[in-house]
Design a protein that fits this description.
CATH class of the largest domain: Alpha Beta
Oligomer: single chain
Radius of gyration: 21 Å
Strand content: 15-25%
Number of helices: 10
CATH topology of the largest domain: Rossmann fold
Low-confidence stretches: none
Order of helices and strands: EEEHEHEHEHEEHEEEHEHEHEHEEEEEHE
Length: 327
């Protein structure tokens, strides 16, 4: 019997929003799959760009789903952001925080002094997402940065998955400050590699697999960090986005959900005019990408189509792609 996909790795690193849960609800199959990985002896960590909540709060939420999570298992962009601050300003410096309780705690635990106003002359501003961030907070950040404070953002995610849909993320708030100050911050979270370094060091991982739902942050970030990645189709990124992604955003694996970690993974195989996968076949003929066999909308067809388009001699915008491949 073929080995499962996850069996070649020693650590499972998972994003949270869109992978383990959507808003307050666990995604189907996620809890069982993560528990099975832990039972098999893998270290399991959670790597999130959301720095607004304390690790204890996140661990409590995950445990309420039926997982076994310690606060130290949660690696947030706030943690990496504070690590970056420590390389930029002296220990004990004043720091203005735009963000939630979790980020403020990280800053205090890092040995810095919290301040609320640019008039306190902070040495740095660290900016993360929180639902109650308002104009006054963004303005104080802008004033401090214009006076010379260093600027770190926990992440630049444009959207945040919620039960009701996609909401504006920290990237929109960072953009507002950027408009005022005229330059961009140092970024701790995905897709920058720093947060992946924090995670692999923490778990002493030699063969990690990172699972995410966003190409622009999760997969690009893992690729930049030199880590194998799996994209699950339970969150933000769509089939259409996946088909057209450039080389830096292509995942090692494409999964419907986390349960497929525990099955053998079928790689697409080259055919005369395209690729096949698990009985599905997609071909490129005269500039047209077409399903030859297999059920439209299936993972097998999607994987074969990705292989065809990613290996095509011309970019996707020059190809006639069958709509059933991405609808």
């Amino acid at each position: 019997m073929a080995a499962s996909l996850i069996s070649k790795y020693d650590t499972l690193l998972a994003d949270l929003d869109g992978v383990v849960y959507a808003g307050k609800l666990a995604i189907e199959g996620a809890v069982e799959s993560i528990n099975l990985a832990a039972k098999a002896g893998l270290a399991v960590g959670y790597v999130t760009n959301n720095s607004s909540r304390r690790p204890e709060t996140i661990a409590d939420q995950l445990n309420s789903f039926g997982l076994e999570v310690k606060p130290d298992d949660v690696i947030s962009s706030g943690q990496t952001g504070v690590e970056l601050l420590a390389t930029m300003i002296p220990a004990g410096s004043k720091v203005l925080v735009v963000g939630g309780e979790g980020l403020r705690k990280r800053v205090v635990d890092g040995g810095f002094e919290l301040v609320e106003s640019a008039d306190d002359e902070p040495a740095a501003v660290i900016q993360g997402f929180a639902p109650d961030v308002a104009w006054v907070h963004l303005a104080e950040a802008a004033f401090a940065i214009q006076k010379g404070a260093k600027w770190v953002a926990t992440n630049q995610d444009w959207t945040l998955p919620q039960e009701r849909g996609l909401a504006p993320g920290n990237g929109t708030l960072v953009s507002a400050v950027h408009t005022a100050v005229g330059f961009l911050p140092e970024v701790a979270g995905k897709p920058e590699p720093a947060i992946f370094g924090t995670a692999t060091r923490h778990f002493a991982s030699k063969r990690p697999l990172f699972v995410g739902d966003r190409i622009d942050t999760d997969i690009v970030g893992a690729n930049r960090a030199g880590i194998d990645s799996a994209l699950v189709l339970t969150g933000v990124s769509t089939k259409k986005e996946l088909l057209g992604v450039k080389a830096d955003g292509r995942p090692t694996y494409i999964l419907e959900n986390l349960s497929e970690l525990h099955r053998p993974y079928s790689e697409p195989k080259k055919t005369k005019f395209g690729f096949s996968c698990d009985g599905a076949k997609v071909e490129l003929l005269a500039g047209k990408v077409r399903i030859i066999s297999g059920e439209a909308g299936s993972l097998a067809v999607l994987k074969a189509a990705c292989a065809v388009i990613w290996n095509a001699p011309t970019p996707i915008h020059t190809l006639d792609v069958e709509p059933a491949l991405y609808e």
